[in-house]
UniProtKB/TrEMBL annotation:
Protein family according to the UniProt entry: Belongs to the EPO/TPO family.
Keyword Disulfide bond included in the entry's annotation: yes
Pfam families named in the record: EPO_TPO (PF00758)
Record-linked InterPro entries: 4_helix_cytokine-like_core, EPO/TPO_CS, EPO_TPO, Thrombopoietin
Main localisation: secreted
Protein name: TPO protein
Signal peptide start-end: 1-20
Source organism: Anseranas semipalmata (Magpie goose)
Amino acid sequence: SPPGLLLLTSFLLHVKEGRASPARLVCDNRLIQKYIGDAKDMEKRVSQCQALPMLSCPVVLPLVDFSLWQWKTKSNETKRREILCDLALLVVAVTGAQSQVSQECGAGQLSQLYRHANSFLLLLQTFSREEEPWEPDCSPRSMEQIRIAGIFLTYRQLVQGKLRFFFHDLAKDSC
């Protein structure tokens, strides 16, 4: 089964009835550690692909660095929306890179990355306490990238940074 499906299924099995709640997904620290490990593994595997080409058309990636002090001053909803914006831009970047990579190893890794990033995107959309659906009406800080490895680095940094701290903050409120 695809790893992204595991993430979504794991979440759905632990959602409380009624309003979506992060429940055990964020309460069990081992899950986010697993996703961080998966991101590191994908980054390592793509670095082992032979002769990965540079992208002929750069993709736009979110800048996912952040100040922990500023992060702590934001509401969970603001954090969620910021991560959603980053993930939406990352998913578009992965799609753009996929259209340029024909090499089997690189294409396979990009497919896996797409499933993981898109699963987190869908998952975080369910965390909203708002009635209206989330619309990607944001403009995160971004940079152009022509290296495929840079896409994987951005994903790992997002999971290891903002997502991990967001899940930690949700766990304080939910567990």
